[in-house]
Specification:
The chain is of the alpha/beta class. The protein has 2 domains: 8-161, 3-Layer(aba) Sandwich (Rossmann fold); 167-322, 3-Layer(bba) Sandwich (Glucose Oxidase, domain 1). The chain contains 8 helices and 15 strands. Helix 2 crosses helix 3 (86-92) and helix 7 (224-236) runs parallel beside helix 8. 46% of the residues are buried. The mean pLDDT is 94.
């Protein structure tokens, strides 16, 4: 299984319009690796910003969710629009929920990963998507991590019985409390995903709950000011109440931008890593929880997969391993 699959995957497009050429290359990559692939007819359509309207995209998910022959459902790409579908999915499955499946995706799909995990009891995997131009160019360890997480989800095998691709040992501390309790390893489910989407759900009935859990966050092309605002909103809204720890993945192209007056910047511009460390260190100090970075998961340059809702152990040396 860690080399090839024999599973049946259905591909949906719950968010933005899908680029056909890159997507079809991704589909061929799946087929070469043993997957049987069904593409929903709405995937390569276009309705303004989206492949289809909200009702049609929700109906596509429901159709595939109730298909007994599909083992996996994989989001074609991210973008925006998945949050629109949550009330439609809830209404459509109020009386009868679909059986157990595994959903894969990330970015805008964060909303669907959290919804299907908590409302339908699905397995969910934060993983690269077929329409990404990097999907066919993943490192061996990244592709292996996807296959391993799929194997765990579909067979019930423990991640620890597979290869080291399921563990992450290169995390670096942003903030570590000095209390005796904080010096112990933390074992808890890991939840989260894209910071912007996770934050956007706060205040709705679909908001993710991080209490008692390890919260994983990543993002792309959000400037430092917006990230700062989102983190404060998460905190002030109660979205971080009771969180055990925060683990940061890649924050790609999240740069510090500074306004100018008379062509002169009003303050120093900080490197992205330094600015992010400052924001999350202050958060860690306030919450008195450990915050680690360098999880190789997100929009790049790293694309490892990680199962959401499953228990992980976060060691005091910065190793994150399946529990």
């Amino acid at each position: 299984m860690t080399k090839k699959s024999s599973l049946h995957v259905g591909i949906i497009a719950p968010s933005s319009v899908v680029p056909a050429s890159e997507f079809l290359q991704g589909v061929e990559h799946l087929k070469r690796n043993g997957f049987t692939v069904d593409i929903h007819p709405t995937v390569l359509e276009q309705d303004y910003f989206y492949p289809a309207n909200d009702e049609q995209r929700a109906a596509a998910i429901i159709e595939y969710a109730f298909r007994d022959d599909l083992d996996l459902i994989w989001c074609a790409r991210g973008g925006y629009g998945a949050t629109h579908l949550l009330p439609l999915l809830k209404k459509a499955t109020a009386r009868k929920k679909p059986g157990k499946k595994t959903l894969l995706g990330y970015s805008d799909a964060t909303a669907l990963l959290e919804f299907t995990r908590t409302h339908w009891d699905w397995n969910t995997i934060h993983a690269p998507m077929p329409s990404s131009k990097t999907f066919t160019q993943l490192k061996t360890s990244e592709w292996t991590s996807i296959l391993e997480q799929i194997e765990v989800a579909t067979t019930g095998r423990k991640v620890g019985s597979l290869s080291a691709s399921s563990s992450f040992s290169s995390l670096k501390p942003v903030f570590l409390p000095k209390s005796a309790e904080a010096k112990k390893a933390i074992t808890a489910p890991i939840v989260g995903g894209n910071l912007s989407v996770w934050n956007a759900l706060i205040g709705t009935e679909y908001a993710g709950v991080a209490k008692g859990k390890i919260l994983f966050l990543e993002d792309i092309q959000e400037n430092i000011a917006r990230i700062n605002r989102m983190i404060h909103h998460l905190d002030q809204s109660g979205g971080l109440k009771g969180v055990k720890a925060i683990v940061l993945g890649d924050f790609l192209d999240c740069n510090d931008t500074v306004m100018k007056v008379n062509d002169q910047p009003i303050r120093k511009t900080y490197p992205a890593d330094e600015a992010l460390d400052f924001i999350f260190r202050l958060l860690g100090e306030k919450l008195q929880i450990p915050i680690w970075k360098n999880l190789p998961v997100g929009h790049g340059p790293n694309y490892h997969a990680i199962s959401l809702g499953r228990k992980y152990t976060l060691g005091t040396s910065g190793k994150l391993s399946p529990a």
